[in-house]
Amino acid sequence: MTTARSTHDRLSRSTGTSRRALLKTAALGTGALATGITLSPAAIGAHAAGSDKPLRIGFQVHRTGIGATYGRWYERTANAAAAHINANGGISGRPVKLLAEDDGTDPKRGAEVVEKLTSQAKVDFVYGPLFSHVVIGSAPRAGELKIPYFVISEGYHVASGKLNRYVFQPGITDVRAQVTAMAPWVMDNLGKRVSMIFPDYAFGYDHRDFFSAAVKARGGSIAALLAIPPTEASFTKYFPRIPADTEVLYHVMVGPGVLTFVKEMGEHFGSKRPEIFGFIDSLEGVDIGARGLAFLEGTHLWEAMPRYAEGYDTPYARHYRDAVGLNAEGASAEDPRDVSTNSHMFGCWETLYAIKQAVEQSGYITRTPRDVAALIETLEGFRGFNEGIGHPQGYKEFDGALHQCFGQQFISRVDGGKLTVVHRTSIEDSQYLAEADYTQQAL
Length: 443
Description:
This protein is α/β, with parallel strands linked by helices. The chain has two domains: 7-174 and 341-406, Response regulator (Rossmann fold, 3-Layer(aba) Sandwich); 176-311, Rossmann fold, CATH 3.40.50. The chain contains 13 helices and 15 strands. Strands 7-6-8-9-10-14-15 form a seven-stranded mixed β-sheet, with helices on one face. A five-stranded parallel β-sheet has the order 2-1-3-4-5, with helices on both faces. Strands 11-12-13 form a three-stranded antiparallel β-sheet, covered by helices on one side.
C-alpha cells in the first residue's frame, strides 16, 4: 500500500497532536512508551505472579565473516541489556535467556539460524542481525515460521515494505532517514558536487539511491558512484576514478578492510583532498587516532550515538556505557585498544527494551498464534519511545505501519585525532513519504 503521508503526518492528522507532544508529556520514566495503551489483565497478572520459566530470545549474531567486529560488540551489548533487565525484574517477571547462534554474516546461513532457533531451540523471538544481505536472506523464513523477528540493521529493507509483518526494526534508524536528515547540512556546509563510495550490496545501494536523491533535491549533482565489494582488501584502484571536480567525497565502507580503505584514501589524496563526509561505518571498531589516519583531520562523519562520551553526555547514556563497559573514548573499559561499534550496537540494548515493553503490554506468554498476534498488533500501536534507561540514544518516534523507528542523528568532525559533535538533527529532519503498510498483511 502506498501512501503520501509522512510518519509524523499519519499520526498528527488522526489525533490532532504531534507524537513529540504525546511522548514528552507522558511521565513514564525509564524509556517507557507513550502509546495510550494500558497493560492487559493478562500482562498485569503475569508480571505480578512472575515465573521461573525464562523468556527465550534467539540471538542471531555475526560472530564470523565480514560482520564479526560488529557481532562481537552486538553480543556484548545484548548480554549487558539482558543482565540489566534480569537484575530489575525481568520481562513480566520472567528472566530473559539469550540463545546465541552464529550466522557467519551469510544470508543462507542466516535463514538456517532462524530455522534452528525457532524449531530446535524453541525460542519466543529472534533478534540481532545487522548486515542487510543477511536480514534480507533471513526474513522470509521468519515470516514462514510466523516468529517475530527483530533486526538491528539500518537498511531500508524493513521500512520499504519488502519484508513481512513479522519483521520489526524498533531500536535503530534506517539509512533513508539518516541521509534525509543529514544531506541538507552536507550540501550547505561542504559542497554540492558529490562522489560516492559505498559497499556493493543492499546497504550500499540504500546510500547510493537515497543520498543521490537528496543531493539532487538540494540542487547538487553526483560526479561518480563507486560500488566496492565488502570483502575487498585494497582500494587503490578505485580512487583514480573520482573526478577532479568533486567537491565532497562521501564514503561508507564495512568489513575487515576499513582501516586499509581510509589509509589508502589518505595516501591517494594527500593534502589536495576534497571535503570528505563519511559514515562512521568506515571507522567502526577503529581508533580514530591510529597511525596513518592523520589524513582524517578536519573531515566529517555521521554517528548515530557518539563514540566519545562528551558527544552525548546524559544520565541515560552514562548508565548505558557503564553497563556495557565503555570508557569515555568509546573503547572497552578493560582494554582501550578494543574500540566499540557504538553507532550501531546501542540498537541491541534498545531493541531488547522494546521487546520487553511489547511483551508486557500485549500480555504475551508463549508463542501461540494468539499471543504472537497480540504482540505484533501491540507493537504496531506504539507511537514511540521516551528517552531513558531503555532508550539512551534519545527519544524516538515509531511508525507501526512501517515497523520502523525514527530518531536523532549526529555529525561529528575529526579534531585532534578524536570526534567532536558539531551538529545534531531533529526527528523531523529524517522523515520521508511512507511507501508501505505492514498492518494490511494477514498474520
